[in-house]
Amino acid sequence: MSDAAMPTSGPTPKAQPTPKTQPTPKASSAPKTGPARPGVKAVRSSFSGPLASVFVIAVTVLWTIPTFGLLATSLRPKEAVASSGWWEVFVHPDMILSNYHTVLFEGGFGVSGGLMPYLVNSLAISVPATVFPLVLSAMAAYALAWVRFKGSDTVFFVIFALQVVPLQMALIPLLQLFSGGAHLGSVTVLPALDLGGTYVPVWLAHTMFALPLATFLLHNFISQLPRDLMEAAVVDGASHFKIFRSIVLPLCTPALASFAIFEFLWVWNDLLVALTFAGGTPEAAPMTVRLAQLSGSFGGRWELLTAGAFLSLIVPLIVFFSLQRYFVRGLLAGSVKG
Amino acid sequence: MRAALLADSAWTDATVKLGNSLGAIAVFLGILLAIFFAAGRATGRFGRPLAVLVFLGPAVVLLVIGLIAPLIRTVYLSFRSDDSTRFVGGKNYGWALTTDSIHQVLLNTALWLVVAPLAATALGLVLALLVERMKRQAVYKSLIFMPMAVSLVGAGIIWKFVYEARDPSQQQIGLLSQLAIRLGWSHPPNWILSHPLNNFLLMAVMVWVQTGFAMVVLSAAIKAIPDEVTEAARLDGARGLQLFWFVTVPMIRTTLVVVLTTVMITTLKAFDIIRTMTGGNFGTQVLANEMYSQSFEQYNIGRGSTLAVILFLAVLPLVAYNIVQLRKERETR
User: Fold this and answer.
1) Cα Rg of chain B, angstroms
2) Rounded CA gap, A137 and A217, in Å?
3) N or C: chain B end with fewer CB closer than 10 Å?
């Protein structure tokens, strides 16, 4: 059974704590099947031939060209971008890096200051918004799997079912809660928190929204840990806290890594939560929010917009090409999130 | 000189912000460790309940505050006026179902829901079949999967640039206009402004993003078909397309449905593409973006909540079906 074939199932029970020793197929995390499988081959052979290859290559080129065009444009001088298409780089390959300096530190979009603060915000939002739900959901998953109590099945089912709730259902009340506090009649349950312009609301929102999926996936993994090992630890007198730290966390590293990468990129690429909870100011708004604003409001300065967009793409692309195996697995597992 | 100063203050700002961020993580982990240490010393009959409380408590509290209570409150707000002061019954729902502009929104959303997932799944299936036989298939797969890694905002900007149109008398800088002119279309339209074509051009972005996902999942499912099945069909004389339609497709039907519904769910909730490329103008508005504009730009809390509930009701059967299929798939393997 392959991970890729079952999107929300997370790591398979068979997944070993040390996946590096397994052969690593590139884009697909499916196990390599032996060299010649007659059945599959028969189906494939009727779809092979030069035409098939031409089709795949054409799609690949079509899929790659728009991103390449963006990169090429971001490296061309202002006048060149305004007067000719990016494909001219093949004829006049004069490339510069100054667009990136301009867009990072000087702006040039009719606003003072560049994108640097927003890029920093993206990072400052994404890292904690990955760590918090990861740790909290691992704890919850452990309790649900190994510290059984009356009602634990119900709690697990409710958390599982919460995956179906679209973020949109939570935005308005949560924003009201952060800005106005909670009241029951005239009694203040929670005071209004003055968190405007800080990362706290975004961190909290991302943590809350990530918990159902993360708990579900990690529960799948943690509940498959060998029972003997757990029981031996209990017999040795280890507390649940000790077991969690010294047995569960180390054995879960592959599952944690997959989810961490998925969640980090999810937060980095997110627009909805950031737009709602971070506002649009340089104090807290990430790149996606600023780029969406710029894309709508400005005309003509493509050399700057493309440079800005590429700055926000570079991080996911590096993660994708360097950690492809974990990335694909985590992404497939999380594909129905939020 | 000024630029250097700006850059300098930008770096200071970055250091402070990242410091805050790392500080928050350190405090968070520190508190957890302290609690673990304290709670780990408790023994006897309190040990177990304490462990449940410490491990499960934070997640449950956050879920109640962050999802369960808001869910209920959004439904409640959808029955109240836009400033939430009066109970208005089903008035907001009536508004959503009878207003012309919302009709357009619902129609667009339905169109998105059908076209983008079907196109992405079909293309993904064809690619999954074709790419297996090729040399260097990992390269093709990676490149086709790559759009899945970037944000929908990034994807929107990438394609907005492709669709950029100028007056035909000028040099074109958008790829699509240039291609159209090269192919002999002397006056191509301004793509983003041409309704209803623009809807399909925006959907193309979603297809661009999701095809790699469909390809990778379906490719794995095809590989998992038992050899005996295809072999038996082959001995019975099935060939080529026949083999594909009557053996491969039925064998991966569950996975096909899972992929299709997964892309549908993503499509229904995604508002980033519309927001980045048209802002919902020129007849391209969809439900998710209208919900955002009503709630947070026009502050019509009642209407915004209503649209959120409608979105929820639309997603619910898809997710439920998706989960059932997924379980079925796991049982049969």
Assistant:
1) 26
2) 9
3) N
Candidates 1.10.3720.10, 1.10.10.10, 3.90.1170.40, 2.170.120.40; correct CATH number of B92-332? 1.10.3720.10
pLDDT of residue A28: 40
CB B238 within 8 A of CB B246: yes
Is the CB of B214 inside 8 Å of chain A's CB atoms?
Answer: no
Mind listing the domains of chain A with CATH numbers?
A: 40-96 (no CATH), 116-333 (1.10.3720.10)
Interface test with A, best of B41, B46, B62 (most A CBs within 10 A): B62
The structure tokens 């649209």 sit at B307
Q: Quote the pLDDT of residue A41.
A: 57
Distance CA A227, CA B45 (A): 23
Domain boundaries, chain B: 2-91, 92-332
- Taking only residues 52 to 71 of chain B, the set having a beta carbon closer than 8 angstroms to any beta carbon of chain A reads 52, 54-56, 58-60, 62-63, 65-71
Burial of A97 (0-12, 13-18, 19+ CB in 10 A): exposed
Query: Residue A295 and residue B175: Cβ atoms within 8 Å?
Result: no
Residues of chain B contacting residue A40, judged by C-beta atoms under 8 Å apart: 132, 222-223, 225, 227, 230
Mean of the per-residue pLDDT values of chain A: 81
A280 CB-near residues (< 8 Å, 6+ apart): A289, A290, A293
B80 has which bridge partners?
B87
Write the residue in B127, B151, B154 that is nearest to A59 by C-beta. Answer: B127
- Of A2-11, A197-206, B134-143, the poorest mean pLDDT is in A2-11
Is A117 in contact with B10 (Cβ distance < 8 A)?
Answer: yes
CA gap B77, B69 in Å, rounded: 12
For A59, residues 6+ apart whose C-beta sits below 8 A from its C-beta are B123, B127, B144
Residues 247-276, chain B, touching A (beta carbon < 8 A): 247-248, 255, 258-259, 262, 265-266, 269, 271-272, 275-276
Q: Looking at the DSSP assignment, which residues form a beta bridge with residue B69?
A: none
> Which chain A positions have a beta carbon within 8 Å of B142's beta carbon?
26-27, 321, 324
pLDDT, position A14: 34
Specify the DSSP element, H or E, that contains B297.
none
Asked whether the beta carbons of B164 and A302 are under 8 A apart, the reply is yes
Query: Residues B239, B240, B243, CA angle at the centre, nearest 5°?
Result: 65
Query: How buried is B100 (Cβ within 10 angstroms: 0-12 exposed, 13-18 middle, 19+ buried)?
Result: exposed
Q: Alpha-carbon distance B207 to B190, whole Å?
A: 21
Q: Which residue of B has its CA nearest to A293?
A: B276
Neighbours of B23 (CB within 10 A): 11
**pLDDT one-digit tens code per residue, A199-225:** 999 999 999 999 999 999 899 889 989
| Under 8 Å between Cβ of A173 and B65 | no
Any residues with CB less than 8 A from the CB of A217 and at least 6 apart, and which? A8, A10, A11, A255, A259, A333, A334
Phi, psi of A117 (to 5 degrees): -60, -35
Distances in Å between the Cα of A9 and the Cα atoms of A234, B157, B238 are: 29, 33, 34
The residue type of A246 is: S
Q: How far apart are CA B218 and CA B255, in angstroms?
A: 7
Residue A182 phi/psi, 5° resolution?
A: -115, 135
Please report, for chain A, how many H helices and E strands are present, in that order. 16, 2
